[in-house]
Amino acid sequence: MRRPLAVLAAVPLLFAAACGTDKGTGAGTATNASSSAIKVTGEAGKQPQVTFPGGKPATTSSVNMVSEGQGTPFKKGDSVISNLTVFDWDGKSNTMAGSTYSAKPELIKVDDKLPKVLFDAFHKVKPGGRFVAVVAPGDSYTKQDLEQAKQQGIDVSVPKVFVFDPVSVVTPKISGTAGDPGVKGITLESPEGAAPKLTTKTDAPAPKELVNKTVIEGKGPKVEKGQTAVVQYTGKIWGSDREFDSSWSKGGEPVSFPIGVGQVIKGWDQTIVGAKVGSRLLVSIPPDLGYGKQGQPQAQIKGTDTLVFVVDVLGAY
């Protein structure tokens, strides 16, 4: 199973994910070095235009709400789909370090690993809103953050300026009445508020074809080819009940990956694409749509093993 892509737990890693460079929109005449002196124009949800004040950059972190958005503010523990644009505020060129508007939104976990200025800002903004934050090196990074950035060749000697456009929060868990998957030899329990329990210990022969059963149908949009899917899952071997991978067993954090474009096993590409967000799937994948004849030795999966997954489709962007 492919591990998560750039689901970013700590902001210094975010800098490394920024792609391409560009020049900022230059310096204005303001002299107050804080987020409130940075002029951000343009509609939330589109590439922002940013004008920096003249003079030296800020030395302390700060945040300014450009627009509040609508709905419910985000809270600790939320996984937020967000667009963002990052600048290096050096007081000269103020180079843009990267922007998701030239790629795809990121999944940001609102937790204590974020610098406090960003953590606090996410508690005030709502979906569709926008905020600009100055993340200064003097009060935002731990020694471990700085060392990690140094090892990755990331310059944190100047403050970073983030313009965040949060889009939505990922569904934390699936809810609804579970139906019988109707796959002979396989049982699936869906206790309310807990991870599903998949049992694959059986003498029944494994299906030779791909099986995709919607156990709980979500109410969200259908996942489209080329999107990034956000899921929870457990995978077991047909017949042995041996679990070879599970996001629930690894702390319960959702994972994300491009879907429908060959970045995961074929069985996932062919079943998650088209599923509605909020759905729980029971999927049986024959070897040719899994890891093929070579199997996956690291996970102790043989080339003849049929894989069985329960997959919760939490989001797509």
From TrEMBL:
Protein name: Peptidyl-prolyl cis-trans isomerase
Entry keyword set: Isomerase, Rotamase, Signal
Gene Ontology molecular function terms on file: peptidyl-prolyl cis-trans isomerase activity
EC number, UniProt record: 5.2.1.8
Residues making up the signal peptide according to the UniProt record: 1-20
InterPro entries: PPIase_dom_sf, PPIase_FKBP_dom
Family of the protein in this entry: Belongs to the FKBP-type PPIase family.
Reactions it catalyzes: [protein]-peptidylproline (omega=180) = [protein]-peptidylproline (omega=0)
PROSITE patterns in UniProt: FKBP_PPIASE, PROKAR_LIPOPROTEIN
Organism for this UniProt entry: Sinosporangium album
Domain PPIase FKBP-type: 226-317
